[in-house]
Design brief:
Layout (H helix, E strand, L loop, with lengths): L7 H24 L3 H20 L10
Pfam family, one: DUF4169
Protein name: DUF4169 domain-containing protein
InterPro entries: DUF4169 (IPR025227)
Length: 64
């Protein structure tokens, strides 16, 4: 029954690197969009909002 010998210093460094890489991947997803992509998304959202507002029916005071 022999166990594999592990260098704790190397194990901790490897674990730290893995955690940092995981955080970096999340940041790439969150903040990695180009300016053009951000502007496109903003324009599409504004267009959808205008379209939604145009379809809205306003109630007159007689209906209340």
């Amino acid at each position: 029954m022999t166990a594999e010998v592990v260098n704790l210093r190397q194990f901790k460094k490897k674990q730290t690197r893995a955690e940092k890489e995981k955080q970096a991947e999340q940041n790439r997803i969150s903040f990695g969009r180009t300016k053009a992509e951000k502007q496109l998304t903003k324009a599409l959202n504004e267009k959808a909002e205008r379209s939604h507002q145009q379809g809205r029916i306003e109630k007159s005071e007689d209906d209340i």
